[in-house]
């Protein structure tokens, strides 16, 4: 009996979102990134179309972490005190599609950097690379409300992706985003309902849903990855089923979450049975990324250059040549 | 031919063609616009004040209006003759609020009828002893008299020892006329005391033991009539706000169970004392009591260890009990009086719900009904005459006014109805008893939340928009809040506000209730649209605005005429049980018939709960009419 591939017919499509603006579009980017537009579940090209490849963003911090496991120190130690150089390396050597600049130095308990300093960092990175930029605050609500409008203004016209709007603090960043022509990350704590609620709250302010990327929170391998995966899968199914408030493309913070695992970080003398530390964390990050790729993530934010390269290889092998 | 004048009534927007010489009040009645009036249109009660915003009416003003009101264009609707086209605004205080349905109407629906009350005073004329009687004892002649008087009501009789002790002397002193206090023990009539003939009626207590609030009604047993009521905060609140923390208290302290029993008894006895005192009734004249409460409250009242309720597989120690005596329970009425406790269904659906289902009559109706009793626990029952399913969720005491800065129980001075006009920045409200406002009760809180959402003061997650241009929006102690009543306007030192935390509290409560109801319905495969009526019970006040309750997503969206607020059905059911054996038997039957649904075992509940923590709900497809009205989801 001949096998017939079962094909599901979906009612709706994931939104298509473009990040970055070239000089024709009023910005200074040399390239832009478009994600989403899918009419089926991830990589089911026999069933529908996924017109845009998942993309790899490299994370750049405005201030290096106090303590880094040796593989990250080895790979990034030379550039990690200079965000511009770090971003350049990610583009030139890793081929990053986007740079995700995280302004951790603004946190009151870290560098407590001023809005002006943060805006300056944004400008520096924009000048250093031509790829589109994700600009993420420090996570302290009050401080983010000070720095993000300034950073947004400094990048006006560049069509950046700003993060993040959460349920308890969404107004300032949404207003900034609308004023300066950026895209917005809406964030929820691994809860599909809260994700939808944040999307509603921000769009109720007048933001077009087509300007939103969702960040559902990420759990690294061994630390809630399957939970995050299933939420992404449910979100994708909701989008294809026609839920307009869950139809935005998704982002995952793979690098920072994967490298929190002790299995990724522990030096060999502490855990000799786990094998060489130089490989372990990279594989941990790449495996986490691989999982979220299958869950339907559109933008994967990575840390280690080799993990990012492994991810890119996976994407290449999964995405059919025509698309 | 002269054209009839047209009258438009605001805010309803109802338009009516008036007949010549009609008063505004008459035209309003003809148009179905509810305007308050208690003097029969004599112009003396002053309740039918309306504002004429366009046109002019004939007639006389009376002394019921202040010069300022007259200047504003206020008239009494009953004294104003319609001569020309008019636009009339009916202010909130003149809109007739629905009267208490609390007990009477709720009771009427059950149709259980009055047959054999739990206890009754039966005046008896005994035969005096003589030689022909063959040496019959006083007891036999007492029973013979009782059999003649009430033989149809009971299958068997007996006499308690204290009554026997009193019998010989009492009968002889009063020329063989005595009053027997007869309790009904499942068809057996027990004479538990004797009294000299007084001709006075006996009284009964209907007691609703709520987790947060205790309500006691004093009832004339012979007529079933209401005499007096008293409500109080449950003293057990000192040991925890919800039943779980009380179970923990009972477990973790050596005398914890006794403390909790003393607390509930203290509350009941205090209420009973107040009600009897106010009615001028001696407590020994109270000859029966019915108690309804959730399963944990029932255990705690009786001093029965409730700890198994909290442990898998969540079973109570007792569900159904025979009649007890007041002295053994600890209720301070006639010590030998029967006390009947309504049977429980499960660990979290108790006798208050059995009684409520009885009073609401849903078990007798062919109509598919969703019944919700909103207290600290939100219990819901769905079904009709052939089947009933029930479940319980932890709603918290927010709608009882507890845990909110200016929340209060539905009693005198509570704002039970309000509206907010953002353009004029004006809040209109009604308080229970027309008293100076002290806070907001459940129905007022529902209105408040809906009004803030409609005006755009809060976003759909209940956060206050600090950019809203009104002095009522402010930040105090670093928390945003909205001022409903300025203290200086009503002679208070402080303003009556709703804080953002209060709002979150209310949203959690309404979310739990909605999610519970939605999960129960889904598990049965019932579409909300097929529900023929929603009956809402609880201590909201005298009035619950159905539209506002749907607007905030407390109730599922159905056509508004399917929603009815029926007051405190627990106490209504307790009254029915006091009055009739059939009602008592029905509660047993209903408790057995209701199938319990365990929400905690249903994986979808938490998901539904979180999606309900939004106004009206995260999924607007469930609230299409509300969304349209609020202009959402476009």
Summarize the structure in words.
The complex is a heterodimer of chains A (323) and B (634). The radius of gyration of chain A is 19 Å and the shape is globular. The model of chain A has no long low-confidence stretch (mean pLDDT 95). In chain A, the strands form 2 sheets. Chain A has an 8-stranded parallel barrel, surrounded by 7 helices. Chain A has a two-stranded antiparallel sheet with strand order 1-2. Chain A is built from 11 helices and 10 strands. Helices cover 39% and strands 14% of the residues of chain A. In chain A, strand 5 (133-136), helix 4 and strand 6 form a beta-alpha-beta unit. In chain A, helix 3 packs across helix 4 (141-154). Chain B is α/β, with parallel strands linked by helices and 634 residues long. In chain B, helix 15 packs across helix 16 (581-593). Chain A binds chain B through residues 167-168, 191-194, 196-197, 200-201, 204, 245, and chain B through 459-461, 463, 607, 610-611, 613-614, 618, 632.
Largest sheet of chain A: 8 strands, parallel, barrel
**Looking at this structure, what is the CATH superfamily of the domain at 203-341 in chain B?**
Domain of unknown function (DUF4445)
**Oligomer class:** heterodimer
Task: Please state the overall shape of chain B, judged from the principal axes of the Cα atoms.
Answer: globular
**Beta-strand share of residues of chain A:** 5-15%
Q: Biggest sheet of chain B, open or closed, and with what strands and sense? A: 6 strands, mixed
Rg of chain A (CA only): 19 Å
Q: Percentage of helical residues of chain B?
A: 25-40%
CATH architecture of the domain at 203-341 in chain B: 2-Layer Sandwich
Structural class of chain B: alpha/beta
Basic shape of chain A:
globular
Measured by DSSP, the beta-strand proportion of chain B falls in: 25-35%
């Amino acid at each position: 009996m001949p096998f017939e591939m079962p094909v599901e017919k979906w009612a709706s499509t994931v939104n298509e979102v473009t990040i970055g603006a070239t000089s024709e579009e009023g910005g200074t980017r040399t390239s832009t990134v478009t994600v989403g537009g899918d009419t089926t579940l991830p990589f089911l090209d026999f069933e529908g179309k996924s017109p845009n490849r998942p993309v790899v963003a490299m994370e750049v911090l405005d201030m290096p972490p106090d303590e880094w496991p040796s593989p990250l120190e080895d790979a990034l130690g030379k550039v990690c005190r200079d965000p511009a150089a770090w971003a350049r390396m990610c583009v030139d050597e890793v081929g990053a599609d986007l740079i995700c600049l995280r302004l951790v130095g603004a946190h009151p308990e870290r560098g407590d950097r001023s809005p002006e300093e943060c805006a300056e960092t944004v400008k520096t990175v924009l000048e250093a690379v031509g790829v589109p930029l994700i600009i993420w605050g420090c996570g302290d609500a009050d401080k983010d409300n000070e720095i993000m409008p300034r950073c947004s203004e400094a990048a006006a016209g560049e069509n950046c992706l700003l993060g993040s709007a959460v349920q308890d603090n969404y107004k300032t960043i949404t207003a900034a985003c609308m004023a300066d022509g950026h895209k917005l990350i809406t964030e929820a704590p691994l809860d599909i309902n809260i994700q939808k609620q944040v999307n509603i709250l921000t769009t109720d302010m007048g933001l077009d849903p087509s300007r939103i990327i969702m960040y559902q929170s990420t759990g690294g391998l061994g630390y809630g990855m399957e939970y995050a995966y299933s939420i992404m899968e449910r979100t994708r199914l909701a989008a294809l089923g026609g839920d307009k408030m869950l139809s935005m493309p998704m982002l995952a913070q793979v690098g920072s979450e994967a490298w929190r695992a002790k299995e990724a970080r522990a030096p060999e003398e502490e855990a000799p049975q786990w094998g060489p530390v130089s490989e372990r964390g990279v594989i941990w990050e790449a495996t986490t990324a691989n999982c979220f790729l299958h869950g339907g993530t559109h933008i994967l934010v990575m840390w280690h250059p080799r993990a990012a390269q492994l991810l890119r290889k996976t994407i290449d092998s999964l995405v059919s040549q025509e698309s | 031919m002269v054209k009839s004048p047209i009258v438009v009534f605001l805010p309803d927007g109802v338009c009516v063609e008036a007949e010549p010489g009609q008063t505004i009040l008459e035209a309003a009645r003809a148009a179905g616009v509810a305007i308050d009036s208690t003097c029969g249109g004599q112009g003396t009660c002053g309740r039918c004040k309306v504002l004429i915003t366009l046109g002019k009416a004939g007639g006389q003003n009376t002394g019921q209006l202040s010069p300022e009101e007259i200047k504003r264009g206020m008239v009494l609707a009953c004294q104003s003759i319609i001569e020309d086209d008019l636009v009339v605004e009916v202010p909130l205080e003149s809109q007739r609020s629905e009267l208490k349905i609390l007990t009477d109407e709720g009771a009427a629906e059950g149709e259980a009828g009055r047959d054999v009350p739990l206890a009754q005073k039966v005046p008896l004329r005994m035969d005096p002893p003589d030689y022909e009687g063959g040496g019959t004892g006083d007891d036999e002649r007492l029973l013979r008299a009782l059999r003649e008087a009430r033989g149809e009501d009971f299958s068997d009789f007996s006499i308690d020892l204290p009554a026997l002790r009193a019998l010989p002397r009492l009968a002889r002193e009063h020329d063989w006329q005595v009053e027997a206090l007869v309790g009904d023990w499942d068809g057996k009539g027990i004479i538990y005391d004797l009294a000299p003939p007084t001709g006075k009626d006996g009284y009964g207590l209907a007691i609703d033991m709520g987790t947060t609030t205790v309500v006691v009604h004093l009832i004339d047993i012979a007529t079933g009539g209401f005499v007096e009521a008293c409500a109080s905060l449950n003293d057990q609140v000192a040991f925890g706000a919800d039943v779980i923390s009380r179970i923990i208290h009972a477990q973790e302290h050596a005398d914890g169970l006794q403390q909790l029993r003393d607390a509930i008894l203290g509350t009941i006895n205090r209420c009973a004392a107040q009600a009897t005192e106010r009615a001028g009734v001696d407590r020994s004249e109270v000859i029966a009591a019915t108690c309804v409460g959730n399963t944990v409250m029932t255990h705690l009242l009786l001093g029965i260890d409730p700890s198994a309720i909290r442990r898998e597989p969540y079973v109570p120690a007792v569900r159904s009990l025979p009649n007890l005596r007041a002295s053994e329970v600890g209720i301070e009425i006639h010590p030998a009086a029967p006390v009947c406790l309504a049977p429980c269904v499960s660990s979290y659906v108790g006798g208050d719900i059995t009684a409520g289902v009885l009073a609401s009559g849903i078990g007798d109706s062919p109509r598919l009904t969703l019944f919700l009793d909103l207290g600290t626990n939100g219990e819901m029952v769905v079904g009709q005459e052939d089947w009933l399913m029930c479940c319980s969720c932890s709603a918290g005491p927010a709608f009882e006014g507890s845990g909110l800065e200016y929340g209060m129980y539905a009693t005198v001075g509570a704002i039970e109805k309000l509206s907010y006009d953002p353009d004029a920045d004006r809040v209109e409200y009604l308080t229970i008893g027309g008293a100076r406002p002290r806070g907001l009760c459940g129905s007022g809180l529902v209105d408040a939340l809906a009004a803030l959402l409609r005006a755009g003061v809060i976003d759909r997650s209940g956060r206050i928009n600090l950019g809203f241009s009104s002095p009522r929006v402010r930040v105090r102690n670093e928390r945003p809040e909205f001022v409903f009543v300025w203290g200086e306007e009503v002679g208070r030192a402080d303003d009556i506000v709703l804080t953002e935390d209060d709002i979150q509290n209310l949203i959690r409560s309404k979310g739990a209730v909605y999610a519970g109801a939605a999960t129960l319905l889904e598990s049965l495969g019932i579409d909300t649209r097929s529900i023929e009526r929603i009956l809402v019970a609880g201590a909201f006040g005298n009035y619950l605005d159905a539209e506002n309750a749907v607007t905030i997503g407390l109730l599922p969206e159905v056509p508004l005429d399917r929603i009815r607020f029926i007051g405190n059905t627990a106490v209504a059911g307790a009254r029915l049980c006091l009055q009739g054996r059939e009602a008592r038997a029905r509660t047993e039957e209903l408790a057995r018939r209701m199938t319990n649904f365990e929400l905690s075992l249903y994986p979808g509940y938490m998901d539904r709960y979180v999606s309900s923590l939004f106004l009206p709900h995260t999924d607007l497809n469930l609230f299409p009419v509300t969304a349209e009205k609020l202009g959402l989801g476009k």
